[in-house]
Amino acid sequence: MASTNDLKNGMVLKLDGDQLWSVVEFQHVKPGKGPAFVRTKLKHVLSGKVVDKTFNAGTKVETATIDRRDMQFSYMDGEYFVFMDMQTYDQLMVDPKAVGDAANFLIEGFTASVAQHEGSVLYVELPAAVELTIEHTDPGVQGDRSTGGTKPAKLETGHEIQVPLFVNTGEKVKVDTRTSDYLGRVNS
């Protein structure tokens, strides 16, 4: 248990039964008259839904312990993703629902942050950007180059993104894992 006076960004609270909410931002408010309160913006750990919630100052809230560890993606076992803990070398099978959109950017050997609560995996978080190879893209047409247009390109993971016309098959590119945006070519 913690008091609303002790809230910090990133802290995970257990509210409404067993739902886990992460504190995105908080603000202590002391109005001219009336009691002080804490205005918070909370993000649901599993769904990502963001809500505003107000607590009276000093109210007790239940905190949840989230164990975040860097793990290396090893391989696919059927539909499950197998990650290896880099310190203990234990293998962990992760459900595709917990991996979510991170699956679009995972290749063997990538390190990801795996968050667990009471033994169950909540989510898998990748770095903001990853470097992947373009598996296939059509060549850019000569007359299109001045427009700054884009074309579809298939990454080595099978995920499709939009890239500038000058990018070719076999090139390594940097991709934003949150938005699937092309960030630039990687010089080898």
Automatic annotation (TrEMBL):
Where does this one sit in the cell? Cytoplasm
Q: Which residues form the Translation elongation factor P/YeiP central domain?
A: 68-122
Give the keywords, sorted. Cytoplasm, Elongation factor, Protein biosynthesis
Specify where it is mainly localized: cytoplasm
Q: Name one GO molecular function term.
A: translation elongation factor activity
- State the Pfam families in the record: EFP (PF01132), EFP_N (PF08207), Elong-fact-P_C (PF09285)
Looking up SUPFAM superfamilies in the UniProt record yields: Nucleic acid-binding proteins (SSF50249), Translation proteins SH3-like domain (SSF50104)
Q: Which residues form the signal peptide?
A: none
Keyword Cytoplasm assigned to the entry: answer is: yes
Which PROSITE patterns does this one have? EFP (PS01275)
Q: Which pathway?
A: Protein biosynthesis; polypeptide chain elongation
**Residue limits of the Elongation factor P C-terminal domain?**
130-185
Task: Give the matching NCBIfam families.
Answer: efp, PRK00529.1
What is this protein's function?
Involved in peptide bond synthesis. Stimulates efficient translation and peptide-bond synthesis on native or reconstituted 70S ribosomes in vitro. Probably functions indirectly by altering the affinity of the ribosome for aminoacyl-tRNA, thus increasing their reactivity as acceptors for peptidyl transferase.
For this chain, the family text in UniProt reads: Belongs to the elongation factor P family.
- Which HAMAP family does this entry report, sorted A to Z? EF_P (MF_00141)
What name does UniProt use for this protein?
A: Elongation factor P
Taxonomy of origin reads: Bacteria, Bacillati, Actinomycetota, Actinomycetes, Kitasatosporales
